[in-house]
Amino acid sequence: MGDVKFYLVEGKMLIRPHKMPEWWKFRKYVRALKPEHAVEKVLSELGSNHKIKRYHIKIERVVEVPAEEVPDRSLVALASLTRWIKP
């Protein structure tokens, strides 16, 4: 099994496609094994959180980033866990 890395996924999503179409830019940091997995995770999260179809999401860039550059400290802390502790 490979190492899990951090990826920055940037793109645009179409909000309100029927009324007043508007493209919103997004930047999302995710953990994944490969860039393809990172794109799949972003498509899934944006689709479920904003109720938009996958074809209304345009991925423009996927870049691997070091853990020091990830602004979400909880994501980095989760990556550094060695085991789960049951209460």
TrEMBL record:
InterPro entries: Ribosomal_eL20, Ribosomal_eL20_dom. Keywords: Ribonucleoprotein, Ribosomal protein, RNA-binding, rRNA-binding. Signal peptide: none annotated. Pfam families: Ribosomal_L18A. This is Large ribosomal subunit protein eL20. Belongs to the eukaryotic ribosomal protein eL20 family. One of its GO terms (molecular function) is structural constituent of ribosome. Transmembrane segments: none annotated. GO terms for biological process: translation. It comes from Pyrodictium delaneyi. Part of the 50S ribosomal subunit. Binds 23S rRNA. It comes from the Archaea.
